[in-house]
Each structure stands twice: as structure tokens, then as C-alpha cells.
């Protein structure tokens, strides 16, 4: 029998708060990988309807084998995506991301054509132009087509390294994709496949798929898995402070990484609570938003025909392999951030290690509402602990230098 102990189960910490109330309290250089998918400043309210279908001969849609189904609207999730000065909103959050990155860490900023050009100028100033590694284009082919211009069917993901001479890039972890003309490369290469380039073809989350949470702007798990497995190592500590539906969190946990997830939308916290239930995350409501946790858990969802949404957890999909394409070797050393100490909110906490009081595990929405109300009464920093954790030190976020074999 092997004397090696099993690796600890990855931990998740979910925080309901304005991210600028959380980020300054996190220790500098703590996170090996930071990914954020902030609002795109579309100028609209983002909405996602929650639907259920039932068999009905007079229904409004046709399903499998021509059978008819009736659509029942259960509710709608939404958030405002309107900013008068988007860079003024984003800039201090980018500065915090730079401060929080480990010495060999990577930062990924996910936007679209509306703001990505302005955001890159900001990132060049904050991280340093020499720290810009790639612009990744996520391309998809879904939805309507414009009749007045070329239809926008891609997002932009900017990758910055904390130090362009030292960063994590696990080339062997990259998933392979088929050759478009396998007959031209020979059977061995055709069987192995090729690594992706900086253009990633991946469909959006299927409206009828198991992965769908019903949260607006949910991103595909495979995109986030590709980033996680190549740009971090098992046991690393990751951060997403625009966490939304928790896709990045699931990718991190499924691949053995610890993760901190922050969002100010109570609906996002509820989606993540159910989606990541398999990892027994701790949930915190900080400051004035502690009351919001109680409200979202206690309030019944809007439903048509008296139907309420199912309360059970969302079953996470089977994780897939993922990866990215290296373009060229790193250049000169990058700029360093101010590593001044900060009050530690820190890594995902074990039971009893939070600064706030620790509460028993909620078993359903009513219990969550009750505990959240108690948390609100006690004040900021109260932890809704989803499980009792064994006492042990949190995993370090530091890593060794990136592998030398960074070949195309």
C-alpha cells in the first residue's frame, strides 16, 4: 500500500459582495490565476428566461419525434449592463487584479468588441505592455444574423502574465483538435490532432443542454477548463470576482484547484450554491449585502401557471480535457506590483477559520434564508458554512517557473 496521502479536496469560497469591498482585503500575490468576465457595457439589461416544457398535444413547440410540448415560463434572471464611464468602473479592479497575482500568475480578461480595445490600453498601463501575451478570440456560430453589418460572433479574451519571463503554461495539458485536412499530415499526426491557435471555436452553452443554469451570459465550461488546466496547477488558488453562474469555479474545482468566487448579485450566489454543491463551498455575505442573501433565498421565484422552479441542485456536466496554443517564447522580465500587506480575507476557509461566525450547513432554501437572516443580524463577515471541514492549512498559491518546452 502506498504511504502517499490522497490529495486534499479542492475548496471553494463564494462571497456575496461588491468586489471592491473584497479585493483590497485580499493578500498581495495570493492567486496563481485570475479570470474575470465583467459586464460588457452593452447598454441593455441582460435577461435570461427560465423555462420548462411539458408534453401537450396542443403545445407551442415541437420536440423529439415530432411530439408537441407546452412552454411554461418559470421566471427570469437579469442584471443591468450600462455604464457611463466603463473604464472608470474597470480600472481600479484591474489594479487589484495586478496586485493579487502571484509572481508567476496569469490574468485573463473576457470582453467583447465594445470595450476590449479600451481595456487593453488600460491593461498595458497597469500590467505593462511587455506582459501582454495573447488576445484569444472565442468564436461561435449561433443566433441571428444582421442585415446591415457583419454579424458579431466572437468574444475577446486578453491574457497578461505577471512576469513574461516566468509564468505557468502547461503545454502537455493542452487538448488536441482535429486537422482540417488529415490526409496532408499523415496518420500519426492525424490521430494525435493539433493544438488550438489563438482562435477558439466553441459553441455557446446550449439552451437545452445539461450545462445550462439559466443565468444570463453564462460561458461554456470547456473554454474555462482550457484556461484552468494550462495556466495553473492542481492545488493552486484561483480567483474570479465577476463570478456570475460559476463556470470558472466549476472548471477550477473539477481540476483540483481552490477558488474564490465573488459576485454582488444574489441570484448569481444562489446559482453557484446549487451548481457547486458537489464541492460543498462556503458562502459568505459581506456588509449590507448579507441581507440580500436572505431575500433571494426566501423569496419565491416568479412562475407562470402557479409552477415553481425545481429546487434541486444543477447536475454538473462531465469535465472535458482542455488547452491552448502557445505562440512564442516569453520576452523580457515584466513589471512588479506593490506587494504591501493587506488584511487577509484569503483563501477558501476551513470550518472555524473565518473571521466571522460559522453557521451550520443549510439543507434547503428555507434553511438558507433562515441562516442568512441570522448572518445579517450578526453583521458583516458571517460565513454560511456548507460543510464541516477538517482543520488544515490552506494550499499555497506559489508555483515554480513555467516549463521550458514552450514550443509551437
From TrEMBL:
Substrates-to-products reaction catalysed: a 2'-deoxyadenosine in DNA + S-adenosyl-L-methionine = an N(6)-methyl-2'-deoxyadenosine in DNA + S-adenosyl-L-homocysteine + H(+)
Stretches assigned to coiled coil: none
Top-level lineage group: Bacteria
Record GO terms (molecular function): DNA binding; N-methyltransferase activity; site-specific DNA-methyltransferase (adenine-specific) activity
Classification via Gene3D superfamilies: Vaccinia Virus protein VP39
Similarity comment: Belongs to the N(4)/N(6)-methyltransferase family.
Protein name, as recorded: site-specific DNA-methyltransferase (adenine-specific)
Amino acid at each position: 500500500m502506498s504511504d502517499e496521502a490522497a490529495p486534499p479536496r479542492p475548496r471553494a469560497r463564494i462571497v456575496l459582495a461588491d468586489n471592491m469591498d473584497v479585493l483590497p482585503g485580499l493578500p498581495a500575490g495570493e492567486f496563481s490565476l485570475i479570470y474575470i468576465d465583467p459586464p460588457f457595457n452593452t447598454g441593455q439589461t441582460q435577461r435570461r428566461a427560465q423555462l420548462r416544457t411539458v408534453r401537450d398535444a396542443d403545445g407551442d413547440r415541437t420536440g423529439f419525434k415530432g411530439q408537441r410540448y407546452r412552454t411554461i415560463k418559470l421566471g427570469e434572471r437579469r442584471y443591468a449592463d450600462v455604464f457611463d464611464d466603463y473604464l472608470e468602473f474597470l480600472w481600479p479592479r484591474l489594479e487589484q487584479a495586478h496586485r493579487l497575482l502571484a509572481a508567476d500568475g496569469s490574468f485573463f480578461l473576457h470582453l467583447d468588441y465594445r470595450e476590449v480595445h479600451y481595456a487593453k490600453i488600460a491593461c498595458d498601463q497597469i500590467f505593462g505592455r511587455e506582459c501582454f501575451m495573447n488576445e484569444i478570440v472565442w468564436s461561435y456560430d449561433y443566433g441571428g444574423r444582421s442585415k446591415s453589418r457583419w454579424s458579431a460572433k466572437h468574444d475577446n479574451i486578453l491574457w497578461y502574465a505577471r512576469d513574461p519571463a516566468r509564468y505557468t503554461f502547461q503545454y502537455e495539458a493542452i487538448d488536441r483538435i482535429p486537422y482540417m485536412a488529415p490526409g496532408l499530415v499523415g496518420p500519426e499526426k492525424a490521430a494525435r490532432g493539433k493544438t488550438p491557435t489563438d482562435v477558439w471555436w466553441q459553441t455557446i452553452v446550449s439552451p437545452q443542454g445539461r450545462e445550462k443554469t439559466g443565468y444570463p451570459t453564462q460561458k461554456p465550461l470547456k473554454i474555462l477548463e482550457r484556461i484552468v488546466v494550462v495556466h495553473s496547477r492542481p492545488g493552486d488558488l484561483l480567483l474570479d470576482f465577476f463570478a456570475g453562474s460559476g463556470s470558472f469555479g466549476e472548471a477550477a474545482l473539477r481540476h483540483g484547484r481552490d477558488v474564490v468566487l465573488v459576485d454582488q448579485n444574489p441570484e448569481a450566489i444562489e446559482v453557484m450554491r446549487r451548481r457547486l454543491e458537489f464541492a460543498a463551498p462556503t458562502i459568505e455575505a459581506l456588509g449590507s449585502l448579507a441581507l440580500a442573501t436572505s431575500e433571494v433565498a426566501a423569496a419565491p421565484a416568479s412562475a407562470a401557471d402557479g409552477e415553481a422552479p425545481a429546487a434541486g441542485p444543477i447536475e454538473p456536466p462531465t469535465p472535458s480535457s482542455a488547452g491552448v496554443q502557445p505562440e512564442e517564447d516569453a520576452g523580457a522580465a515584466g513589471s512588479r506590483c506593490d506587494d504591501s500587506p493587506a488584511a487577509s480575507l484569503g483563501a477558501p476557509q476551513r470550518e472555524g477559520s473565518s473571521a466571522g461566525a460559522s453557521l451550520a450547513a443549510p439543507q434547503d432554501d428555507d434553511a438558507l434564508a433562515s441562516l442568512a437572516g441570522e448572518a445579517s443580524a450578526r453583521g458583516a463577515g458571517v460565513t454560511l458554512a456548507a460543510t464541516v471541514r477538517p482543520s488544515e492549512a490552506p494550499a499555497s498559491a506559489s508555483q515554480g517557473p513555467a516549463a521550458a518546452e514552450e514550443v509551437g
